Amino acid sequence: MKNKIIDLTQVLNETMPVYPGTLKPKFEKSYSIDKNGFAEINMTLVSHTGTHIDAPCHILKGARSLDRFPVEKFIGKAIVIPCEGRSEISLSYLKTFEEKIAQVAFILFYTGWQNKWGTEAYFNDCPTLTKEAAMWLTNFKLDGIGFDAFSVDKMGSAEVITSETLPNHFILLAKEILLIENLTNLDKLPDDIFMFQCLPLKIEDADGSPIRAIATFE
Amino acid sequence: MKNKIIDLTQVLNETMPVYPGTLKPKFEKSYSIDKNGFAEINMTLVSHTGTHIDAPCHILKGARSLDRFPVEKFIGKAIVIPCEGRSEISLSYLKTFEEKIAQVAFILFYTGWQNKWGTEAYFNDCPTLTKEAAMWLTNFKLDGIGFDAFSVDKMGSAEVITSETLPNHFILLAKEILLIENLTNLDKLPDDIFMFQCLPLKIEDADGSPIRAIATFE
Fold this sequence. Notes:
two-stranded antiparallel ribbon; 5 helices
């Protein structure tokens, strides 16, 4: 590979941040070289731990799980849109990127939240798409959108889960636009189009999956 | 992507085969759309479940874990070597591929064992490298070797784990040649060189990781 590769993935360990109210992952060293001659970790984690994808069936009954998409779904051209310092990502702002959006399969939104990873402030409201911005994105042939933040919707709205409280999840997943959350290193990406990939584990009926997300470019 | 992509990964579920004596994975649907408004799986699995990588520190004390390699380690040129019907993979047989081996980062060995996945016969002795063949491979700049079978060593030898009973694990991991096990679809790969990737989850101190392995070619 002469291409440059950027790792867009947060580390998985027992002290990592998790979405409030959800289980912390466990990584138990169940076998060790000293005692057993080999090392093995027994891990317990939910399908939405760390850098991960939300599948349509995470929120929509009868919708597609990650294992029902071909692998091509998880690899494609991408751009990053800088959203640092914005409270919301508006339709008018997105329209300034329209020509590039029409050429890609993935949009990654750099909110700056990656710099709050590991602090309480990470779960403060991050810049999110307005409902009309999310609806406008469904006009394009997108495979997914990603954030260096915990969600595509505001945190406060998540206590009761409906299309009113988590509008962007419902709008985007209904169109099979995958949601990629807790990315990092989005500030290290080029201004131009690059290749992005977010292959999930091949879990049967996966409503989500932790991933190793990367970007490649020349 | 105009490239063709082949998924080389076995499905993860509760009925999948696991290495004899190790824990079966659990995928508990802990939240559901009907009850909670969203679906989430709580999963418990060991670091060597399904299609996975063995890191050097799986067997060798103080050796490198998967998270300590740059992502470039897991992506590179590859060939597949057909080994169906052979009881062992000998040095003289490997030498017939020497020119190609010198050009790639990964060698995938097609043993035909992928067709036994889900049957008891999967854990019968598969074709494995002779010790001298494994040692010869350390002369090349390989990042990893993969199999559509459960191990790079014979099963019977695994009861006590030493460099005598699992020679190929020790020889190859000492040179940081990663071992990729339980691949599938190796019969669908081209005769020529293709691109292979086996990105692990970014688990801290990972002695192994389940992966979504793919091959791409034009």
